[in-house]
């Protein structure tokens, strides 16, 4: 197993993004698919909701997308040719082994973040990226490392696909039970807002108390519970229990660019709700499940986003959400939905918890593989 220390520029090429004119953007699939930053990043691949008729910089299919403006270092793989804006760069391995590059950059993420700088918000430029020191292996070792790590990702993606299918079944089942009449959400539930934790109390050192913030809500069914911040016991010892989250709770981003994004909670015991994030509290279990399934849909998230107001950044209040009209459902149909979809919803959560364990496994393997601590001589691919 041969390796060498080198600069990122020695093994990869970097294309920095450039934003087209805002007047060229559209959501009607006209022109080139466009990503301004990491807003619609998924776990591995991005979702596209914007197009441009005046593309500037292009990320090739299979190249690695990295956010270069706050937050620096978020990674995805381009699953098609995409126009990229100034919030991103595209990195491509010179030997075309881009999957290996994806894991190499994940391993090097702390180095990358340390290189970032800025007076208003963090950013990193092309020269700084090119000069990142990395450990590079021979092609055979690269392939073995990629094979191990990607096999875990394939299982995670399979679970995600199963969850997508289960959710499609659930939302279709729900839609067939809805009435024509509309009533406000408050007829089914209240929206509980979060607690204003002090910045000084939010820490990256792991405790048992995880805080769900807006940044933990992304373009997926589940919240990003892994990249949580934490607080110590003394911070939450006298905190009202209404701010504590439960497994299966659906949370809602209520401000900023992420307004309207939702995600359910899973995997750990102690979660607490940060300010400007809401949670559904149903009037009963049947009504709560109805809204959980409804709020997780892309269509409803877009509706929530459209209700935002404010000149600097969009906002929506708990009462605003409670006043949104949704299709009414009879008590009989609510019970039918619960009896038939509660197990489906719980299966989705169970798959996410399996994924969480797989991500932990991958997280423990990644540094050992990249540091040469695991003997790969007997591994065949």
Portion in helices: 25-40%
Give the C-alpha Rg: 22 Å
What's the level 1 CATH class of the largest domain? Answer: Alpha Beta
Number of domain modules: 2
**How does CATH name the architecture of the largest domain?**
Alpha-Beta Complex
- CATH topology of the largest domain, by name, is Adenine-n6-DNA-methyltransferase TaqI, Chain A, domain 2
- Give the strand tally: 21
What's the story with the biggest beta sheet?
5 strands, mixed
- CATH homologous superfamily grouping of the largest domain: DNA methylase specificity domains
Tell me the structural class. Answer: alpha+beta
Distance between the termini: 15 Å
Measured by DSSP, the beta-strand proportion falls in: 15-25%
| Biggest sheet, spatial arrangement of strands | 3-5-4-9-6
Description:
This protein is an alpha+beta fold and 381 residues long. The chain folds into two domains: 3-135, Adenine-n6-DNA-methyltransferase TaqI, Chain A, domain 2 (Alpha-Beta Complex); 168-336, Adenine-n6-DNA-methyltransferase TaqI, Chain A, domain 2 (Alpha-Beta Complex). It contains ten helices and 21 strands. The protein has helices at 8-11, 98-107, 109-115, 126-130, 139-175, 233-236, 285-295, 298-306, 318-322, 331-370; strands at residues 3-7, 12-16, 25-26, 32-35, 51-52, 57-59, 64-67, 75-77, 82-84, 88-93, 133-137, 182-184, 189-193, 209-212, 229-231, 244-245, 250-253, 262-264, 271-273, 277-282, 325-327. The strands form six sheets. It has a five-stranded mixed sheet with strand order 3-5-4-9-6, with no helix packed on it. Strands 2-10-7-8 form a four-stranded antiparallel sheet. It has a four-stranded antiparallel sheet with strand order 13-20-17-18. A hairpin with an 8-residue loop joins β17 (250-253) and β18. The longest helix has 40 residues, at 331-370. It is globular, with a radius of gyration of 22 Å. The two termini are 15 Å apart. 35% of the residues are buried. The model has no long low-confidence stretch (mean pLDDT 94).
